[in-house]
Amino acid sequence: MRHRFDFDTFREIGDSLFRNKRRTILTGFGIFWGLFMLLFLVGGGKGLKQSLSLTFEGFASNTMVMISSNTSKPYKGMKEGRYWQLNRKDVERLRLLMPELDVVAPMVSNWGLTAEYKGNTTSCAIKGISGNYHKVEAPKLKYGRTIRDADVEQERKVCVIGKRVYNDLFPQGGDPCGTFIQVGSVFFQIIGVDFSSGNISISGSASESVMVPFSVAATLFKRGNNVDIICVTGKPGIKMSSLEPRVRSIMAREHLFDPTDDQAMVVLNTEQVFSIMDNLFRGVNFLIWLVGIGTLLAGAVGVSNIMMVTVRERTIEIGIRRAIGAVPRDILSQIIWESVLLTLTAGSAGIVFSVLILNVVERIVPQAVTFQISFWTAVLAALLLSVLGVLAGLAPAMRAMKVKPVDAMRDE
Amino acid sequence: MLIELKGVHKTYDNGQPLHVLKGIDLQIEKGEFVSIMGASGSGKSTLLNILGILDNYDEGEYHLAGKLIKNLSERESATYRNRMIGFVFQSFNLIGFKTAVENVELPLFYQGVNRHRRHEAAMAYLEKMGLTDWASHYPNEMSGGQKQRVAIARALITHPEIILADEPTGALDSKTSVEVMELLTRLNREDGVTIIVVTHESGVANCADKIVHIKDGLIERVEDNRLHHASQFGTDTIMK
Ligand SMILES: Nc1ncnc2c1ncn2[C@@H]1O[C@H](COP(=O)(O)OP(=O)(O)OP(=O)(O)O)[C@@H](O)[C@H]1O
Ligand SMILES: [Mg+2]
Fold first, then answer.
1. Which domain holds residue A310?
2. Same domain, yes or no: A254 and A373
3. B199 lines ligand 1 (CB under 6 A)
4. Of A216, A236, A270, which one is at a domain's C-terminal end?
5. Considering only CB atoms, which chain B residues are within 8 Å of A19?
6. A84, A161, A400, B105: which one has the fewest Cβ atoms less than 10 Å from its Cβ?
7. What is the pLDDT of residues A69-88, one digit of tens each?
8. Which residues contact B144 (CB under 8 A, 6 or more apart)?
9. In this predicted model, what pLDDT tens digit does every residue of A98-151 receive, in sequence order?
10. What whole-number distance in Å separates Cα of residue B155 and Cα of residue B34?
11. ipTM for the assembly
12. Which of A89-93, A101-105, A233-237, B66-70 has the lowest mean pLDDT?
């Protein structure tokens, strides 16, 4: 008799849902909670990843950092525990022997210093860097420029200050370039301000550093030819981990330590760190979707179950409908549509609620991190829901279809 | 002949077969007012369900308005129920979360009649039943008599030729029972609706022109009651 799904049918279904509120809320809660959990976890994971990536901000992903250390094996008559140091010749050597390298940047540094400007003071570290260091750790220049080769060659007493140093010394803000600050007993002219917020920076974070030309720092700290750290980056397409053995053997030959002595030189490989991070987040993401979808499925099974029970409770109602003219298909579509409408309503509430909560989280977390789910994630979730709604309604609808008109006559 | 049963058998089989109807022959003309009486368990409701195409039978033949009612598709039987037959039940069987007027509308909803016309028709029938003021009340806010009148309005809204009532006064006191029976009588007299009432109460049965007595799944006798003298308690009242 009826073939179309029109507004009337919709009303009929709406009535049956909204006039049995307790039943409906009970049924819908599983879906609401499932969707909320899924989206909240997805958003949370996204925010967490972003906030962790901020830590690595600015860092080239193919960087290798070398630091000398005590040897741990005796070699050619020398005892273990001997200390050796990297030097400027090593920089030249690496440049010559390893054409795969893009940047070879030496660094000397010193911590626990105090910087002063017009009575404002702050603790800081000095990092003596070469003109190409910005290729290793990209600065976020707020003002001015970075240290250049010319600054190094001419031993200019200039510096680039980090965010915290800037904030402490110049609480009133403004462009400080050209002014002089005092670090220890030396005056440096500011040529730039670096606002990068990475936390993994070499020799202390960028925000607490005063970066000066390498040559100036080497003289200041009386390092002679020695170098604290050498940072190298690979040319595009080069896997840094594959270069590590050669770098080690070059250094071992030069500084007379056992090439198999891994502790003699500490080598940090950002590629490894990044890939560990990537794997970690792939795992976390997988877990999030697994848990989220699991919760959602549990919700759908719950809906299906409760609808199964309500179909039994509604036997007489369904029997009456059949007795006064409904065909099994009317009943089937009614139950399925009830399920779809219920899942969609409860699910949308879940979406809205998770968006609201993620919004609050975003405000509470101090970092500028996006927790909010994307529009397409929401659309995907809604699609998933409709499918779940139909599936959840299927079994109860099948049972409802089996109700015979004569069941209306049973009075219980 | 509107209704014609020939040798109808019905056996329930829930583990143990129970032969309930053992060969029913029955003829009912259009416009008749018939009541069916018999002891509890004699098969009255079973018979009425078969007449209403709510249930099927195992043997014999049932012709409704000339059409053999056997192995009908769900759609066909739903159409017959919806267009030809109105049901009135002992326990009213209204849908609890629907108001009176919505309950009355429901058969038209399954016919695909639009909401506006449905509502108008339902209101008209409720008015006929004297229930205009109760239209937007839910069943649990109404008395038994009112509920049964809503059920009758719902049975009437599709202009059926037949009203089947299974103990329609079973849950009512004697005063409302009289009202309901008067209503059915008037429908029969004025509108020519064929009415078949299953009852235990001789007073109710006495309203009918023909009383069918059933015993152990067979028709024991058919009593002509056009003079309405069947009830020893008189013609005007229904004794409880
Ligand atoms: N669905 C069913 N399955 C099995 N047995 C049934 C079923 N419906 C009715 N019966 C049995 O069939 C017999 C006749 O039942 P029916 O309901 O027709 O009796 P009745 O004459 O209407 O009785 P009452 O006056 O008590 O309503 C009874 O013994 C009953 O237990
Ligand atoms: Mg009965």
1. 7-55+275-411
2. no
3. no
4. A270
5. 97-98
6. A84
7. 888 888 888 888 889 999 99
8. B92, B171, B172, B173, B176
9. 999 999 999 999 988 999 999 999 999 999 999 999 888 888 899 999 999 999
10. 17
11. 0.90
12. A233-237
CB contact under 8 A, A2 and B45: no
What is the tally of structural domains in chain A? 2
**In this structure, is the dihedral angle defined by the CA atoms of residues A14, A16, A22 and A28, taken in order, positive or negative?**
negative
Answer yes or no: do A77 and A167 share one domain. yes
Nearest residue on chain A to B107, alpha-carbon basis: A324
Give B45 Cα–ligand 2 centroid separation in angstroms: 4
Q: What would you report as the CA-atom Rg of chain A, rounded to the nearest whole angstrom?
A: 34
Question: In terms of domains, do A98 and A35 share one?
Answer: no
How many angstroms separate the CA atoms of B108 and A230, rounded?
Answer: 87
- A321–B111 CB contact, under 8 Å: no
Q: What span, in angstroms and rounded, lies between the C-alpha atoms of A241 and A410?
A: 78
CB < 8 Å to B49, chain A: 406, 409
Domains in chain B: ranges and CATH: 30-57+73-224 (3.40.50.300)
Contact A2 B81 (CB under 8 A): no
pLDDT recorded at residue A1: 46
A131 plus A30 within the same structural domain:
no
**Is any atom of ligand 1 closer than 6 Å to the C-beta of B20?**
yes
Q: Which of A2, A19, A408 sits opposite B93 (nearest CB)?
A: A408
Burial of B140 (0-12, 13-18, 19+ CB in 10 A): exposed
Q: pTM of the predicted model, to two decimals?
A: 0.71
Q: Is residue A1 part of a domain?
A: no
- The reply to whether A2 falls in a domain is no
Residue pair B209/B34 in contact (Cβ under 8 Å)? The answer is yes
What span, in angstroms and rounded, lies between the C-alpha atoms of A344 and A24?
Answer: 12
Chain A residues with CB-CB distance to B87 below 8 A = 323-324, 408
Does the beta-carbon distance from A405 to B109 stay under 8 Å? Answer: no
List, for chain B, all residue ranges whose pLDDT scores fall below the cut of 50. Answer: 234-235
Residue at a domain's end among A238, A270, A302: A270
Residue A314 lies in a domain: yes
Q: Which residues of A154-192 are buried (b: 16+ CB within 10 A; e: fewer)?
A: eebebbbbbbbbbbbbbeeeeebeeeebebeebebebbb
Question: A251 with A280, same domain?
Answer: no
Q: What angle do CA A82, A85, A89 make, to 5 degrees?
A: 140
CA of A358 to the centre of ligand 1 (A): 61
Shared-domain flag, residues A191 and A146: yes
The DSSP code sequence of A101-142 is: EEEEEEEEEEEEEEEEETTEEEEEEEEEE-TTGGGTB---EE
Tell whether A107 and A248 lie within a shared domain. Answer: yes
Task: Specify whether A139 is located in the same domain as A260.
Answer: yes
